[in-house]
Sequence to fold (200 residues):
Amino acid sequence: MIQATGVILAGGKSVRMGTDKAFLKVGPQGMLEHIAGEFKKVFAEVLISGGDPETGRNLGLRVINDLIEGKGPLCGVHAALHEAQHDKILVVACDMPFVTAKLACFMMRQVEGYDVAVPSHGIYLQPLFAAYSRSCLPVIEESLAANKYKIDGFFPRVRVNYVNMENYCSHIDIETLFFNINTPVDLHKAREMADKKITN
Ligand SMILES: Nc1nc2c(ncn2[C@@H]2O[C@H](COP(=O)(O)OP(=O)(O)OP(=O)(O)O)[C@@H](O)[C@H]2O)c(=O)[nH]1
Ligand SMILES: [Mg+2]
Fold:
């Protein structure tokens, strides 16, 4: 077990999807349930940040509320850094159905000696599948106090390990690994990707 906290972000309004994304199925399980299962395998503690408290009860996980509500994922990270039993957390969005426990463990190793470890590939960063240390809290609080809610807005002010994923996996895998579902079209695409993965 990694002595760290896995945090599944499940707040927000799912406006683009029109229905709570956490419960949508890609494969046999709802996305939140699937990630919870992966994280329980490796993290000493798993929390759900935001969303329906009933969900957490059903999965046997604690649901924590945002301390600042309705302002997006950075507030989920903020609340999780407050509430986690451990100094380091791995944050994942509940709408990323293809992330794995193995990748989470890899990212936790990358945050040693840093405040943040974030996957990077090409021009992209994946701050919604990244490791954060409690040392980020004061800087995040300053951002929130200044009404700056962009998730990676505080990165220039802390020690960030930008982890080049092209060294870790192939280009195609990267696109699948970090695929996130925002719209009904994305959901359809993800289900096709999942079918392909099974038949491959
Ligand atoms: N704790 C917490 N999580 C959030 C919040 N807003 C979004 N999230 C989560 O952050 C992840 C990324 O969210 P998005 O896909 O950008 O947005 P969303 O709010 O779910 O959907 P839209 O309303 O369509 O933008 C998802 O796992 C959401 O559940 C928030 O205010 N608090
Ligand atoms: Mg999203």
Observations:
- The helical segments are 31-42, 53-59, 73-83, 101-110, 137-145, 171-177, 184-199.
- The pocket of guanosine-5'-triphosphate (ligand 1) is lined by residues 9-17, 21, 49-50, 66, 70-73, 75-76, 93-95, 128, 182 (CB under 6 Å).
- The chain has seven helices and eight strands.
